[in-house]
Amino acid sequence: MTRARQSQVGWSEAAADMDAAQGGHAMGSDGIAVDTPDMSKLLQQYGCGPIRFTGTSDALYERHLMFDNVADLSTLGPRERFEAVARSVRDVLSQRWVLTEQTYARQNPKRVYYLSMEFLVGRSLTNNLLNLLLDPVVKRATADKGLDWIAVLEQEPDAGLGNGGLGRLAACFIDSMATMQLPAMGYGLRYEYGIFKQTIRDGWQVEQPDNWLRRPDPWEVVRPEEKVEVKLGCSFEVRGGTLGVIVGRPSSLLGIPYDRPVVGYGGKTVNTLRLWAAAAPDTFDFQAFSAGDFVGALAERLTAESLTRVLYPDDSTSMGQGLRFVQEYFLVACSLADLVRRFRLHNSDQGIPNWSKLPAKAAIQLNDTHPSLAVPELMRLLLDEARLGWDEAWNLTRQTLAYTNHTLLPEALEKWPLPWFALLLPRHLEIILEIDRRLTEEVQARFPGDDGRVERVSLIEEGAERKIRMANLAIVGSHSTNGVAAIHSDLLRTVTVKDLAEMFPESFSNKTNGVTPRRWLLLANPHLARSITNAIGDGWVTDLGELERLKPLAEDKGFRDAVRTAKREAKSRFADWLQSTSGVTVDPDTIFDCQIKRIHEYKRQLLNALRVVVLYNRLRENPDLEMAPRTFFFAGKAAPAYHLAKIIIKFLNNLAGAIDGDPAVRGRLKVVFLPEYSVSLAERLIPASDVSNQISTAGYEASGTSNMKFMMNGALTIGTRDGATIEMAEAAGEDNFFMFGLTAEQVAGSRSWYSPHWHYDNEPETRAALDLIFSDHFSRFEPGIFEPLRQTLLTGGDHYMHLADLKAYLEADNRLLELYRDPDEWARKVIVNVASSGKFSSDRTIAEYAAEIWDAKPCPVP
Ligand code: 26V
C-alpha cells in the first residue's frame, strides 16, 4: 500500500462499506486521486501549485465530498460524488480561468462577444476533463481505485439551453474560440428550465419540464456584485392569477450573472460563458405590505424572477410571445451594459471613455435576430448615456455589431408588434423610427420612384398591426450579415433580403458552419479517434485539415480494418447502452441508418418513413429478396404546439411497432424511435451510425450541423443538395456521397405545377406505400389518426415535395445497399469521407469570423 493510500484509510472506510452495500458500485475511496506524478505536474501547469497535494486525504475531491455535503460519507451517493468531482475539476481550472481574465484586462485586446438566446452545451464534466488533458490521468486513477466512473458521469444533466442546431452551434463556437485563444465571451440566459424532456406515451410525444438546476450546478459561479439593472417602460402585476401590465409606470429588473468556464483544448485559455438570471430589485414595498397587499407587494418580485424561468420552444409563434420579447431585451440590455462597463474600465482617459475605440475593442455577434434589439440598445447607450451625436453613434453601432442569419423560413423570421415597443421600450421605438426614417430617405435617394423597394426594405411592416422586422433591423444596424452555408448565404442575398443586399452589398458574406472535433470525435468516438491518431498523430484535434492525410490510407488494408473495428465497437457500445437503459434490443450487425434532428416537415422525416414503408412492402411481397438487414433510428423533438410534427412522431412509433410485430420482416428491418434527443444522445449514436440521412427539401435547411458530425464519425451520407451537405459532398467528391432529388432551383421552379397526385398515380411503390398507411395498417386500433398525413402529402399539395423526391431517394438507397455488399469499398468511402471532413471543424469557421468579421486576434494566456 502506498503512503497516499494508507493516509486516506479511515474517513473513507464508511464510503467503501456503503459501496459494498450498494452492490458493487464501488466508489474508490479516493475518487479522482491527485497523488500521481502526472497529476501534480498538470496541476502545477494549471497554477494549482500553492495548494498542498501531499496525499489523497488532501485531495480536492475528498474535501469537496466531505465539506460540501457536511454529511456522513456513507450516506452519499453518485450525485454527491459527481458534484465533488466536478467541483474539483473546477478548482483545477479556476486559477487558469482567473489568469485568462487578468491577461485580457492587462493586454486589453479586442474582445468578441457572442450573444445568443441559446447555448446547447450538454454535459461539461467529460468535456472539461478532455480539454484540460486530464482525461487519461483521471481514467487511470478511477480505474485503480475502482470508482464507478460511468455512474458518476451519468449524474450530470445535459444543459439543454437550446432548441437545436442554432444553440448547439453556439456551444461549438465557444469551444473553438477558447481553443484558438480568442478573447471571447458568450452571453446568454440562465433558464431554469431548458428544452422540455420528451417521453413517448402510446407513440405520442409527451413533454415534461426539464428542471435541470434542481440540484446545484457545480460549474456555475454567481457574481452578484456584477449585477446590472434593466429598465422597462411599464410595470407588471398579478391580478386574479393572470399577469397584467401597468401602462406608463416604468419598472426595473436585475440581471445577475452566472459564469461558466469554457475550457479551450489544452487548458491554456479558459473563457467565460455568462448567463443572466432575472431578479427583482432589492426594494420591497413595505407600505403595500403593511396595508395588507401582500400579494401585490410580491407580484413584481415573482414576475421579475419568472422572466428567465423557461426556454421558449421554437414554434410558439403566438402563445406567450410577450415574455419572449422581454427575454430578448433582457439578454441584450444585460450583456451590453456589462460589456460597455468593461469597455469604459479599460478605455477611458481620466474617467472619460474614448468611445471612438469601441469597434476596435468589441465585436458583438448576434446569433440570429433574437438579440437584434442590440441595435437600438447600443444606439440608446451612445446617444443618451455617452451623449454622442446620431451619426457618430450610428457609425460605432454598425461597426461593432454583426448579424448571422440561420433560417430562411418566413414563419421563423421575427417580427414584433410595434405596440409592444411603445409599451415596454418607448425610447427604443423612437430610435427605430428614426433609423427607418433615414433608411427610407436613403432608398428614395438611391432608387427614386421605387416605392415597392421602400416598402420591402423598411423596418416596419404595415398592416392591421404594425410590426418591426427584426432581420431588417439587424442587417441595417450592423456591418456584417452572414449565412451559414454557401447555398443559404446565396439565397439570403439573392432572394430573401435581396433589396437590402443591393443596398449594402459589402456587408454580405458566407461562413459555413462547423462543429468542434473535440466533443464530436475525440470525446464521442474514442476508438475511431485512437485509430486516426495512430495513423497520423494527434495534430488533427486542433487542425482538422490534417485528416486529409488519411486519404491514401483508404488503400491500406490495415487502416480499413481499424476503421471497421472502431465502427463495430461503437455500435456494440451503443447497443449495450440502449439495452441496459431501455430494454430495446438492436443488432450491431445490421446497418445503422439514422435521422436525428428536430422534427419538422421541411426536414422530411416523413420522406424517410415512406422509404421504410416501401422497403417493408418489398420484403412482404418478396420474402426471398436479398437485402442487408437494417435498423432505422429516428430521434428528435417536436415543438409542443406543432401538431403535424407530433403526428409524425406518432407515425414513426407506430411504424416501429407494426414492423416489430410482423414476422415477415423480423431480423431484416427494424425501426427505433429514440426518445429525448439531446446532445448526450447524439454523442452516443453518431459514432455508431453507418448511414446519415440529410434529406430536407432543397433550399430549406440553412446548413445542418449533425451532417458534419456524422461525416467525421465515418457514416456515409444519403442526402439532398441542401445546406452544408452540398459542400460536404464537394469536399469528399460526389462519388463518395449518395445525393439525390430536386435542387433548390428545381424546387422553386416546379412549385407552380407540382402535383403529388401525379406521383401517386404513376409510381406503383409510392402508391402502395401511401395506400398501406391510409388503410390503417399502422393504426389498426386507432383508425383514421393518420388522415393529416394524407392531407399534407396528397390533398394539401405536399408543400415540402416528399413525393417528388421519393423515387430518387429509393434509387440512392439502392446504390448504398449495393456498396454495402462490398465491405472493402464501403470502408474506402468511409475513410475518404472522414479524411475530407476537415473543413467542417468549427475552428475553421471561427477563424473566418475572426479574420473577416471581427478582426480579432488570439490573446494567449502565459
Ligand atoms: C424556428 C422556427 C420558429 C417558427 C416556426 C418554425 C421554425 C423553424 C425553425 C426555427 C429555427 C430557426 C433557427 C435555427 O435553429 N436554424 C438552424 O441553425 C443551424 C445553425 O446555423 C443550422 O445548421 C440549421 O440548418 C438551421 O435550421
TrEMBL record:
The keyword Transferase applies. Its EC number is 2.4.1.1. Signal peptide: none annotated. The modification N6-(pyridoxal phosphate)lysine is found at K709. PROSITE patterns: PHOSPHORYLASE. It catalyses: [(1->4)-alpha-D-glucosyl](n) + phosphate = [(1->4)-alpha-D-glucosyl](n-1) + alpha-D-glucose 1-phosphate. GO terms for molecular function: glycogen phosphorylase activity; pyridoxal phosphate binding. The keyword DNA-binding does not apply. Keywords: Carbohydrate metabolism, Glycogen metabolism, Glycosyltransferase, Pyridoxal phosphate, Transferase. Belongs to the glycogen phosphorylase family. This is Alpha-1,4 glucan phosphorylase. It comes from Skermanella aerolata.
